[in-house]
């Protein structure tokens, strides 16, 4: 029996190549250090996929990337950057500086602008002078150097607090002032712990654990802290 055309129920596909796995990343640059932190919860919708997932990737000895968004795209992006950095090391016999890696990340994201990596990145480390630097990005490679930055599901909760505590002068003011924050290394770590503990109370995609990476002249140090697990 043939059904009339109007009786056929056409359903539009709701499949998407993207997902948002949540999570929050923060970075703070100081005079001679950089603190990068991210929570360890990975979610989809109202489900927690894992409570112990690292969103922080070491790209070079003095350069670390923290990313939230779609973690499959994040992994592909990290693999791409690592391969390009390896090529750079073979050609130049040295590692990339953090500002050079920042430009490479921008170019890599912009190259994919028509089918973007669904990844929201904060890049932190030390520049060639040993000063802390933080670079924040959108999904298609637009970036700026700042004294601090936040990305991810809890960033709208954290940025007002960071602005209140660390707001640097406008880059349009002359003479230009250093973007590094005035906090000491320990003060920056304490501030990061406080804002993550607060954000975890309000954002269901941020929680479980906190991974903190501190970069200074001595190298890279990692620390962890528990967050609420519900």
Automatic annotation (TrEMBL):
<comment type="function">
    <text>Component of the proteasome, a multicatalytic proteinase complex which is characterized by its ability to cleave peptides with Arg, Phe, Tyr, Leu, and Glu adjacent to the leaving group at neutral or slightly basic pH. The proteasome has an ATP-dependent proteolytic activity.</text>
</comment>
<dbReference type="Pfam" id="PF00227">
    <property type="entry name" value="Proteasome"/>
</dbReference>
<comment type="function">
    <text>Non-catalytic component of the proteasome, a multicatalytic proteinase complex which is characterized by its ability to cleave peptides with Arg, Phe, Tyr, Leu, and Glu adjacent to the leaving group at neutral or slightly basic pH. The proteasome has an ATP-dependent proteolytic activity.</text>
</comment>
<dbReference type="GO" id="GO:0005839">
    <property type="term" value="C:proteasome core complex"/>
</dbReference>
<comment type="similarity">
    <text>Belongs to the peptidase T1B family.</text>
</comment>
<dbReference type="GO" id="GO:0051603">
    <property type="term" value="P:proteolysis involved in protein catabolic process"/>
</dbReference>
<dbReference type="GO" id="GO:0005737">
    <property type="term" value="C:cytoplasm"/>
</dbReference>
<keyword id="KW-0539">Nucleus</keyword>
<keyword id="KW-0647">Proteasome</keyword>
<dbReference type="InterPro" id="IPR016050">
    <property type="entry name" value="Proteasome_bsu_CS"/>
</dbReference>
<dbReference type="InterPro" id="IPR001353">
    <property type="entry name" value="Proteasome_sua/b"/>
</dbReference>
<protein>
    <recommendedName>
        <fullName>Proteasome subunit beta</fullName>
    </recommendedName>
</protein>
<keyword id="KW-0963">Cytoplasm</keyword>
<dbReference type="InterPro" id="IPR029055">
    <property type="entry name" value="Ntn_hydrolases_N"/>
</dbReference>
<dbReference type="GO" id="GO:0005634">
    <property type="term" value="C:nucleus"/>
</dbReference>
<dbReference type="InterPro" id="IPR023333">
    <property type="entry name" value="Proteasome_suB-type"/>
</dbReference>
<comment type="subunit">
    <text>Component of the proteasome complex.</text>
</comment>
């Amino acid at each position: 029996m043939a059904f009339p055309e109007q009786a056929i129920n056409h359903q539009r596909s709701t499949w998407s190549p993207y997902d948002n796995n949540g999570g929050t990343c923060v970075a703070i640059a100081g005079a001679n250090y950089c603190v990068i932190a991210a929570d360890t919860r990975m979610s989809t919708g109202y489900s927690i996929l894992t409570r112990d997932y690292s969103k922080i990737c070491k790209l070079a000895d003095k350069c670390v990337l923290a990313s939230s968004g779609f973690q499959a795209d994040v992994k592909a992006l990290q693999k791409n950057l690592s391969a390009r950095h390896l090529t750079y090391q073979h050609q130049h016999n040295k590692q990339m500086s953090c500002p050079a890696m920042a430009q490479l990340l921008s170019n890599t994201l912009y190259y994919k602008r028509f089918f973007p990596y669904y990844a929201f990145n904060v890049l932190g480390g030390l520049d060639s002078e040993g000063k802390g630097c933080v670079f924040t990005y959108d999904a298609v490679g637009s970036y700026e150097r700042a004294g601090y930055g936040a990305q991810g599901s809890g960033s709208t909760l954290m940025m007002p607090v960071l602005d209140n505590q660390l707001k640097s002068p406008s880059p349009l003011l002359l003479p230009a002032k250093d973007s590094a924050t005035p906090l000491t290394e320990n003060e920056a770590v304490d501030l990061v712990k406080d804002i993550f503990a607060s954000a975890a109370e309000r954002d269901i995609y941020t929680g479980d654990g906190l991974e903190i990476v501190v970069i200074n002249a001595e190298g890279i140090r990692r620390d962890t802290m528990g967050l609420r697990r519900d």
